[in-house]
Write a structure and sequence with these properties.
13 strands, 12 helices, binds serine, globular, two-stranded parallel sheet, Rossmann fold, alpha/beta, seven-stranded parallel β-sheet, single chain
Length: 344
């Protein structure tokens, strides 16, 4: 008998941490975790099995098909937007070919199981591309089907993988005699910048938000790489995990689309600075905009319209801006860096 599991790729990443910790504490699912790096100690107790390996390794994925019955895939592994600009072709391989490999694995699993395999995929506000700052300021809350001309390799990868997910769900091998017999149930969230009190992101462009906070809490100087007026949507990690799990659990007939915006609050960098300064008055924060990273932020929407998620599956964040900082981020971060395990 093959073991029934939930597969989580990118286990060590920020969302991986949040999701594995949550699901592990719930104890309802066996977790099969995959990452290119050795699994973080803190996640080990929650995982039934960990495999260190690359999503580009087809042999490895083939072995997973043979050994496990994978009911749901959370495909979180990805190279984020800033890092991807330093090596766009590598990013394309990991972000696109990696996703294609996982979709293929979902098809094979669904053939074995004779039922659809759910495929949860985090996309991003990077899928949008506004041509200039004036357009950004005028655009307001951007809807899922607007402004889809991403300016980064990461954004192109995410948008294309959304299309692939839709294709695998509705049209996979549509000319084959047995077309429609297997299925992938692809469900995708376009996340805003995510902020966690426990982990910091690596290689993203919305990182100035979490970095400002984590540096201040550790009494480290921080040079913010965007202008004070830069505005992006953000959400705390707990809400990101909640949205993933709610979308996973939503009845198929409730979904009017495969890709949903979710968001919570949209501060400017200046507002984040003021909140951080109030909590950590000695914080040494300066603004030193990096022109290229700034241009990426300027191409992403200041806010997104998440009414489709609210209507279809009852999405509502638990943390607005005040609650996010006052009740979660600041107290937990303070504690995080005052205990014996200060460093991240
Ligand atoms: N937070 C991501 C990044 O900055 C966007 O999804 O790359």
């Amino acid at each position: 008998m093959r073991k029934e599991v939930v597969l989580i790729t990118g286990a060590n990443g920020e969302i991986g941490h949040g999701l594995i910790t949550y699901l592990g504490q719930q104890g309802k699912h066996r977790i099969l975790a995959l990452d290119v790096q050795p699994l973080d100690e803190s996640l080990k107790p929650y995982c039934d099995r960990f495999i260190q390996g690359d999503i580009l390794d087809q042999m490895l994925l083939g072995r997973l098909v043979a050994e496990f019955e994978i009911r749901t895939i959370y495909h979180l592994a990805s190279i984020l937007s800033t890092k991807a600009e330093y090596n766009p072709e590598t990013a394309h391989r990991v972000n696109v070919e990696g996703t294609l490999n996982l979709l293929r694995l979902a098809v094979e699993q669904s053939q074995w199981q004779g039922r659809p395999v759910k495929f949860l995929y985090p996309s991003s506000i990077a899928a949008y591309g506004l041509p200039d700052i004036v357009t950004k300021q005028k655009a307001g809350k951007v809807k899922e089907d607007e402004w889809l001309q991403p300016a980064t390799m990461y954004g192109c990868n995410k948008l294309y993988c959304e299309h692939l997910g839709r294709y695998y769900t509705y049209n996979y091998r549509r000319l084959a005699a047995d077309a429609g017999k297997t299925s992938v149930d692809f469900r995708c969230l376009r996340f805003p910048g995510l902020i966690s009190a426990i982990t910091v992101p690596t290689g993203g462009t919305s990182d100035y938000g979490p970095e400002m906070l984590h540096h201040a809490a550790q009494n480290l100087p921080y040079a913010c790489f965007v202008r004070p007026d830069s505005q992006l949507p953000f959400m705390v990690m707990a809400d990101a995990i909640k949205s993933l799990l709610e979308l996973e659990a939503a009845p198929a007939e409730a979904l009017t689309r495969r890709v949903y915006n979710v968001t919570s609050f949209s501060p400017t960098a200046q507002e984040i600075y003021e909140i951080v300064k109030k909590a950590f008055p000695n914080a040494d924060i300066t603004f030193e905009p990096h022109l290229s990273r700034q241009s990426i932020v300027d191409s992403w929407p200041a806010d997104v319209d998440d009414s489709a998620a609210r209507t279809d599956w009852g999405w509502k964040p638990d943390y607005d801006q005040t609650r996010a900082f006052e009740e979660y981020l600041i107290p937990v971060i303070r504690q995080r860096y005052s205990g014996p395990n200060k460093a991240l």
